[in-house]
């Protein structure tokens, strides 16, 4: 038996390694030619210290308190030279990937579908040529064919499948948009780099509030796919805001999630004054059903910078400090980059 261990490095790179039963994370990483920090490998120096808040493991009792204190253990700190997983885990490594003689994984895939699901949104589907592991909420860089340019897009599909999907803003004159709308064909090959990002789903232990702006819905769809597949018993609410009516997409998918996940609900809103949508304004205007739970809530927010800044200001004004707050900004520029900026 083996377990999938996600190593999240300080620079946002994630590498997955397979850890055999009874094997330490440090040894599994070395076997994959990833040199995690290490001096002694005996639980004495503390050089290999990291953190794990997701997954089951055993640290044993062979390490020194000077290397890892009881207080650090209570905070989720681990020594990778002593950590023996008993399930899939996510380990935070407090150094850059380059310091461990590794970097982003390079993959290839085949375009299977390009769908203009609204005048402003393109759905791109790719089948990876081999396994491409990622955490729900992460993204990859996709190279625009016939150029050296890459664009960053969040997975909207569930982890564990080679069938990948992405929501891409259809930007007039955008490099990726122009290729997708004018040149892309089924069977085209694309290069992928990643996964990357810290906007992944943490353990589902308390109510969840999701806030999406435009194609910022994509990583939240991946999270919902994971929650549907693994079960979800906590209240989960999504507020999905867009500028114009045409920007609302994937409502059929959200309806299916609402049917399949008993604890999930969502509302949509449109900010344009010209819209006939029943809920006008921004996401912060429609928080009535948000499971804020006096701050005992995990918040996931993805959207353009003004929206993210507005939501952060809303929580400050309301005096609400969520248990955890994870957000990611993206900027659909004239180049159509969709680049992640936080």
Automatic annotation (TrEMBL):
<dbReference type="GO" id="GO:0051537">
    <property type="term" value="F:2 iron, 2 sulfur cluster binding"/>
</dbReference>
<dbReference type="InterPro" id="IPR012675">
    <property type="entry name" value="Beta-grasp_dom_sf"/>
</dbReference>
<dbReference type="InterPro" id="IPR017927">
    <property type="entry name" value="FAD-bd_FR_type"/>
</dbReference>
<keyword id="KW-0411">Iron-sulfur</keyword>
<dbReference type="InterPro" id="IPR006058">
    <property type="entry name" value="2Fe2S_fd_BS"/>
</dbReference>
<keyword id="KW-0408">Iron</keyword>
<keyword id="KW-0479">Metal-binding</keyword>
<dbReference type="InterPro" id="IPR001709">
    <property type="entry name" value="Flavoprot_Pyr_Nucl_cyt_Rdtase"/>
</dbReference>
<protein>
    <submittedName>
        <fullName>2Fe-2S iron-sulfur cluster binding domain-containing protein</fullName>
    </submittedName>
</protein>
<dbReference type="InterPro" id="IPR050415">
    <property type="entry name" value="MRET"/>
</dbReference>
<dbReference type="InterPro" id="IPR017938">
    <property type="entry name" value="Riboflavin_synthase-like_b-brl"/>
</dbReference>
<dbReference type="InterPro" id="IPR017896">
    <property type="entry name" value="4Fe4S_Fe-S-bd"/>
</dbReference>
<feature type="domain" description="4Fe-4S ferredoxin-type">
    <location>
        <begin position="30"/>
        <end position="62"/>
    </location>
</feature>
<feature type="domain" description="FAD-binding FR-type">
    <location>
        <begin position="104"/>
        <end position="202"/>
    </location>
</feature>
<dbReference type="InterPro" id="IPR001041">
    <property type="entry name" value="2Fe-2S_ferredoxin-type"/>
</dbReference>
<dbReference type="InterPro" id="IPR036010">
    <property type="entry name" value="2Fe-2S_ferredoxin-like_sf"/>
</dbReference>
<dbReference type="InterPro" id="IPR001433">
    <property type="entry name" value="OxRdtase_FAD/NAD-bd"/>
</dbReference>
<dbReference type="Pfam" id="PF00111">
    <property type="entry name" value="Fer2"/>
</dbReference>
<dbReference type="InterPro" id="IPR008333">
    <property type="entry name" value="Cbr1-like_FAD-bd_dom"/>
</dbReference>
<dbReference type="InterPro" id="IPR047683">
    <property type="entry name" value="BenC-like_FAD_NAD-bd"/>
</dbReference>
<feature type="domain" description="2Fe-2S ferredoxin-type">
    <location>
        <begin position="3"/>
        <end position="97"/>
    </location>
</feature>
<dbReference type="GO" id="GO:0016491">
    <property type="term" value="F:oxidoreductase activity"/>
</dbReference>
<dbReference type="Pfam" id="PF00175">
    <property type="entry name" value="NAD_binding_1"/>
</dbReference>
<dbReference type="Pfam" id="PF00970">
    <property type="entry name" value="FAD_binding_6"/>
</dbReference>
<dbReference type="InterPro" id="IPR039261">
    <property type="entry name" value="FNR_nucleotide-bd"/>
</dbReference>
């Amino acid at each position: 038996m083996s377990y999938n261990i996600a190593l999240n490095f300080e620079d946002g790179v994630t590498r997955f390694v397979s850890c055999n039963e009874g094997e330490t994370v440090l040894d599994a990483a070395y076997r994959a030619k990833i040199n995690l920090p290490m001096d002694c490998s005996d639980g004495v120096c503390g050089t290999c210290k990291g953190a794990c808040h997701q997954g089951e493991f055993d640290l044993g009792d062979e390490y020194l308190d000077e290397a890892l204190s009881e207080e650090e253990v209570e905070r989720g700190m681990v020594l990778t030279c002593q950590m023996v997983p008993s399930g899939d885990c996510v380990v935070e490594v407090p150094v850059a990937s380059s310091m461990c003689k590794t970097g982003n994984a390079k993959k290839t895939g085949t375009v299977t579908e390009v769908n203009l699901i609204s005048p402003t949104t393109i759905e791109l589907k790719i089948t990876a040529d081999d396994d491409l592991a990622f955490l729900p909420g992460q993204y990859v860089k996709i190279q625009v064919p016939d150029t050296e340019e890459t664009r960053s897009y969040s997975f909207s599909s569930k982890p564990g499948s080679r069938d990948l999907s992405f929501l891409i803003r259809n930007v007039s004159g955008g490099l990726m948009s122009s290729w997708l709308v004018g040149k892309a064909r089924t069977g085209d090959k694309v290069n992928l780099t990643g996964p990357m990002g810290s906007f992944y789903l943490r353990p589902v232990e308390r109510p969840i509030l999701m806030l999406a702006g435009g194609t910022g819905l994509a990583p939240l769809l991946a999270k919902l796919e994971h929650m549907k597949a693994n079960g979800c018993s906590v209240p989960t609410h999504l507020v999905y805001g867009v500028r114009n009516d045409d920007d609302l997409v994937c409502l059929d998918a959200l309806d299916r999630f609402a049917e399949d996940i008993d604890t999930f609900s969502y509302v949509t809103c449109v900010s344009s004054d010209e819209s006939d949508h029943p809920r006008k304004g921004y996401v912060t205007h429609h928080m009535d059903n948000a499971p804020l739970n006096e701050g005992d809530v995990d918040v996931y927010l993805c959207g353009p910078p003004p929206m993210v800044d507005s939501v952060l200001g809303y929580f400050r004004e309301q005096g609400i400090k969520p248990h955890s707050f994870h957000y990611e900004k993206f900027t659909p520029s004239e180049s159509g980059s969709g680049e992640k900026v936080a």
